[in-house]
Structures are given as C-alpha cells and as structure tokens.
Amino acid sequence: MAITHGKFITIEGQDGAGKSTNINVVEAWLNAQGIEYVKTREPGGTEFGEQIRDLILSSDTGLIGQKAELLLMFASRAQHIQEVIQPTLSSGRWVLCDRFTDATYAYQGGGRGESVDDINALKKVVQGELNPDLTLLLDLPIELGESRANARSEPDRFEQEQAAFKQRVRDSYLNLANDEPERIKVIDASRSIDAVEQDVLAVLESVLGSTDN
C-alpha cells in the first residue's frame, strides 16, 4: 500500500496580521476534515530552535550581525526539518507552520537587505526540494499591524524596527506572492476577524478541499 505524503501549510505575515488567530482557523478546518497534523513554528519547533528563537527575538540580546541572524534562522530551520517537518510529512501527516523560509526572504532579505542569492544558496543546502504546498499570507498596512502588535505584547527585536524596515518586509512578502501565486495566497488581514476567517476557509477549500489525506 502506498504511503500518502502529508501536506505542508505555512502561515506568513507581518507582526499584528493575526497569524495566531488564523492558525486556529486552519486547525479547526483540519480537525473537521479528520486530518492528522503537527502544529509548529519558526524560528523554533525544536528544543534547539526555541533556544535560537529566544536569542533572536529578545530585545535584551543586543546586537546580532545581519549575517549571523540569517545563519541562525537557517540553523534553526535545518534542525526543524530534520527533527519535525520531514518525519511528519513522510508519515502521511500534515504540517501547519507559523512562518517558514518566506519569512527569511521578507525579514532578512527585504528588511535587512541580505543577498537573495545567499538566501537561495542556504535554502538549497538546508531544505533541498522541500517547499510548502500552500502558504497563507496575511497582509495589512504596516501602521495597522504596528497598532495591533503593540496592543498585544511588548515588542520584540523585529517589532522595534523602524517603519521603513517593516514596509520593506511587507513589500518583499507581496513580491513573493506575485512570483508564486499558485502557492502563496494573499489574504487582506485589515478587515474584520470574521471576514478574514471566511477568506482563509475559502482558500483551504479551493486549494486543499479535494485533497486525499
């Protein structure tokens, strides 16, 4: 009997875009379909990755060089793929991940200005042909994202960046979506929670609804 390879869904977006809320929406949809899945996040997802997450996001960490930050992201990702993502997919279960490599292109590439060629090279080494089957990109104006994020919690290192940095991140995400429209589906996250949820469910049904699990 053939083993069905699991599907890989990622959620992307700026801080304050509502990723956590809509991850819950995706989880409810997966549960309703009777699909077995693992929920995880980046940076993080493993003990090693969570240590890197704390280091990268903490406002108390101090200066981390841009290349060091980029390499730390991929170090966390390499362990995440080896320990969690690939074994889960190979077992036939699905993976739901809060951010993946698109975030590196957006934050380290667009935001920090790191070379896309360098990111491409690291991506090839770390993940090979592995890519998400579907990416939901929650998009909204940076001012709205800032106000939502600031109301939610103390800002992390990335949330403390200037508006120009955040605009470059948003632009990079939208450019990625323009380059890969079949995989990356843009959701207008500036609207009400209910309206965003309906769009998320519509995308899941249209892209994955007929997929055998």
Description:
- By secondary structure, this protein is of the alpha/beta class.
- It is 55% helix and 13% strand.
- It is built from 8 helices and 5 strands; from the N terminus they run E-H-E-H-H-E-H-H-E-H-H-E-H.
- The protein has helices at 19-33, 47-57, 66-90, 101-111, 116-127, 142-152, 163-179, 193-208, and strands at residues 8-13, 37-41, 94-98, 134-139, 184-188.
- A 5-stranded parallel β-sheet has the order 2-3-1-4-5, with helices on both faces.
- Helix 1 (19-33) crosses helix 8 (193-208) and helix 3 (66-90) packs parallel to helix 5.
- It is globular, with a radius of gyration of 17 Å.
Quick structural overview:
By secondary structure, the chain is α/β, with parallel strands linked by helices.
Question: How are the strands ordered across the major sheet?
Answer: 2-3-1-4-5
Distance between the termini: 14 Å
What's the total count of β strands? 5
Question: Rg from C-alpha positions?
Answer: 17 Å
Query: What share of the residues lie within helices?
Result: 55-70%
The SSE order reads EHEHHEHHEHHEH
Q: Characterize the overall form.
A: globular
Structural class computed from helices and strand pairing: alpha/beta
Question: Largest sheet at a glance?
Answer: 5 strands, parallel
Q: Can you tell me the residue ranges where pLDDT is under 50 for at least 5 consecutive residues? A: none
> Whole-number average pLDDT?
91
Total of DSSP H or I helical runs spanning 4+ residues: 8
The fraction of residues assigned to DSSP E strands is 5-15%
Keyword list:
213 residues; alpha/beta; globular; 5-stranded parallel beta sheet
